[in-house]
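FAQ: What does the model actually see?

It sees only this:
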Amino acid sequence: MSAEDDDRAESPRERVERLYAGPGPAARRFRYALIAFDLATIAYFLVWTMTPPTGALRVVEVVIAVVLGLDLAARLWIAHKPWRHLVQPVTLADIAVLVGLIAPALIDNLAFLRVLRAMRLLRSYHVLHDLRGRFTWFAVHEEVVFSAVNLAVFVFVVTAVVFVVQVEANAGIETYLDALYFTVATLTTTGFGDITLIGESGRLLSVVIMVVGVALFLRLLQTLFRPSKVRVTCPSCGLERHEPDAVHCKHCGRVLHIETEGE
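And it is asked to produce this:
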């Protein structure tokens, strides 16, 4: 059977599944387009908080809603267990985004669901496999890039929580940029004090950010500037990732020669 016959025998569902999870240049370009759309969507929501609503923005929201709806429907269609896929956090976040775009009046009453829009960035993680195999630089610096993405997602989500909790009650937080400024100042323990969270929920959120958030933030920064693993290929078994101070390969036990900076 020829390649052309194989293409004709492939069902529409299999073609869609190949775009989302299969090899080949077309599938990679499709997944890169998805990550670009995710980043563009997040950028829109950042601008949305600082721009008065207009007809043009409403058109953008309709386009985003259509693309999100098609993407969600396609992922549910190719899922082997659609109901299990439907209850995953990222899928629920997509549904929340759609509700916010289609019924803004409803989402205004449930403003906390806006936080879930930030979780769309998490969907970008599945392209790491593509990038690792295609770009040598990414394969070498994968852990640093992954830590940077984790840090960005963490800051974005914390900022979104601050924004939706305080935007209508706090005169100091009118835009997402105000919430980002407060969040970074708190996480870095700078604490300028020109913006503070008000109300019992605001004080409680401040405590959570200071106690839990700062520890996680510093940990993410540490993994970003000092990765916890180094890449040295074991001559015997081929294991690549090892602890920085490893003497033996943890898989086969062979002596390793990992270059270090010393004391």
